[in-house]
Design a protein that fits this description.
The protein is of the alpha+beta class and about 200 residues long. The longest helix has about 30 residues, at about 5-35. It has helices at about 5-35, 45, 50-60, 65-75, 130-135, 155-165, 165-195; strands at about 80, 85-90, 95-105, 105-110, 115-120, 125-130, 140-145, 150-155.
Length: about 200
């Protein structure tokens, strides 16, 4: 194009060559220099090494998964911070997310005859919101942050994406989720039997 006698073509060719030289310099020199001095941080890094090990040991949801598989799950999830007293879930609302408590303390309660009844206090490794995730049922309780808390949220769309990328992780996750739901059913049945 530079050898053409048509001026707009010559100018366009020269401009194209200039842009390609700039792109090559940037790609070969500037980008590597920038990346060598910048540390990229992922959600996995944010959670912290000590917290990760404690979380892996305490969480039924993560049971049987390797650190690599847990890391992959965490990187596909969303991190959410909750302040003291903040309501995370409202009873009766629609929802398609479940939460894993990473740090902090969470209170689960219901309003019964105008009075608030505590159901559970959750700690790191515990899960809540799983019923709305696996069914189209509305939220069954109110959930509040007792302390500043960090949560990992998983929605159905994320799980479907993970199912396509890592069917083993997803099958293990659903197996663990069924254990959690089974334990909750046993607890509920025991409470009902005690009331009789």
């Amino acid at each position: 194009m530079v050898f053409s006698k048509f001026v707009p073509i010559v100018q366009f060719g020269a401009l194209s060559a200039f842009v390609m030289v700039i792109a090559a310099v940037t790609e070969l020199f500037i980008t590597p220099m920038t990346l060598s001095s910048v540390r990229l941080i992922t959600l996995w890094d944010v959670i912290g090494l000590e917290l990760r090990d404690r979380l892996i040991k305490q969480s039924v949801l993560l049971e049987g998964l390797s650190k690599f598989q847990i890391r992959r799950l965490i990187l596909m999830s969303h991190m959410q911070d909750a302040k003291v007293g903040e309501q995370i879930i409202r009873e009766g609302d629609a929802g398609d997310k479940m939460y894993l408590v990473i740090d902090g303390e969470i209170s689960v309660s219901r309003a019964v005859n105008g009075e608030r009844k505590a159901i559970a206090v959750l700690e790191p490794g515990d899960v809540f919101g799983e019923i709305a995730l696996v069914s189209s049922q509305p939220r069954t309780a109110d959930v509040f942050a007792v302390t500043n808390a960090r949560l990992l949220s998983l929605d159905w769309k994320t799980l479907q994406g993970l199912r396509r990328l890592s069917p083993f992780i997803t099958s293990k996750l659903f197996l663990n989720l069924s254990k959690i739901l089974g334990n909750r059913l046993i607890e509920t049945t025991d409470k009902m039997v005690c009331r009789l």
